[in-house]
Hints:
- The structure holds two protein chains of two kinds.
- By secondary structure, chain A is an all-alpha fold.
- Chain A has 18 helices and no strands.
- Chain B is mostly helical.
- In chain B, 90% of the residues lie in helices and 0% in strands.
- Chain B has one helix and no strands.
- Chain B has one helix at residues 3-38.
- Classes of the chains: A mainly alpha, B mainly alpha.
- The A-B interface holds A 15-17, 19-20, 22-24, 26-27, 30, 162, 165-172, 206, 210, 282, 285-290, 292-293, 295-296, 345 and B 1, 5, 9, 12-13, 16-17, 19-21, 23-24, 26-28, 30-32, 34-40.
Amino acid sequence: MASILDRERTVAGPGFSRWLVPPAALCVHLSIGQAYAFSVFNLPMTRLIGGAKAGPDDWSLTELGWIFSIAIVFLGVASALFGTWLDRVGPRRAMFTAACCFGGGFLVAAFGVWVHQLWIVYLGYGVLGGCGLGIGYISPVKTLMSWFPDRPGMATGMAIMGFGGGALIASPLSVRLMQAFATPTNPGVAPTFVTLGIIYFCFMVIGSAIVRVPAAGWLPAGYVPKLLPGRSTAMVDVNPDEALRTPQFWLLWWVLCLNVTAGIGVLGQASAMSQEMFHGRISAVAAAGFVGLLSLFNMGGRFFWASTSDLIGRRATYTIFFVLGIMLYAVVPTTAHIGSTVLFVLCYGVIISMYGGGFATIPAYLRDVFGLQYVGAIHGRLLTAWSAAGIFGPVLVNYIRAYQIEHGVARADSYTITMYLMAGLLLIGLFCNLAVRPLRADRFARADGLSPLPAEERGR
Amino acid sequence: MSGSANGSVGGRLVVYWAIAGIPLLWGVWQTLSNVIKLFQ
């Protein structure tokens, strides 16, 4: 039965402007970017029973920390599992599915909070919501690159910038909703979850309604695809199973994983780190401002670096991330020793801009190496690197810091080794990036240099 | 493309970008309000 969600119903007619598509992607990414702001619920959820303060039966912060972790793991799992399905059914059905999962996840989590059963919250926001995150994250990527073959980095950068920007909206919105719903005995988390679930569902459905895919063979006016003898860009189309058997895929997996590990560990500890490295000079309120500033760099970096990669190339962009990142991580402890808050903030701002830039640049990097046809599925599988980094990064920063403090290192100095370790991780990432080479064109592309071989014809 | 079609696309561009842009700008504004505290 034909459905308005079918790919065929989303093909753009003549005269359609491609600039109408990025807002559709932004509707989805601004919604699912809420995940970065989930921590605003942590403290209120520790006093659901106790009311004004945590009671003995209330959930601990450690237990609550798993909600975000499960969501990020299922983001990777869902994007890996559903990438191929997404390439088949198109962006509208995928965005609508993501809206149901993400909005529904909030509703299930609200029920879990209501009956005070943490496993239901894990299942709701973590598993169901995490699937919504994964499907939603990859759903507009291929569509945008199809509309903007001349500027794929900028196009995906715009959407993925929305994921960074989602937290900027969700954080103040959630706080205000909880303030509105709170009573003297209840912090108002459950009704806030219900409200957010409905808002995000509607916003994502708007995105799915306005998204369009280009007609077959459509190209922007004046754009001529490059032919084979030159760069390998967009000259091959490797299916996801074949991609997994190439060293290029695994090199890029480590490139993303190491870039994210270096950023995510610091991002989670930014508030505490700034206060401890500048003891007495950065207050808790100022630290909150610092975290907000990092969010802006995170968001802006996604657009800036991805757009820059269209001009200088993906490999060169990642080389800048790693080389500049190593230098900045090496300098950060010195900024604390000389007491320069401005330099400290600037260093971290640039580091986090490159963390965001890494996310935004990787889809175009994948397109360059593996072609456009299956980029959604390949991107989905690569995002397992994010899930891995979501575990490595915070663990590295937290455990190394705790180990040093236990062994008598001053709190202000306890991050120094971590910074040098992050620089070391980036050095490995640099080598991985430099090892990425174009795929052999004779193995994966047709003689005309433009049309890919069908999967069943490859390998003959 | 005719003038009315151009106008229609232009109007949709404004509406679509406003749908996505206004919440984002509100979030950026809220964040910048907090960032100022870092430098006070």
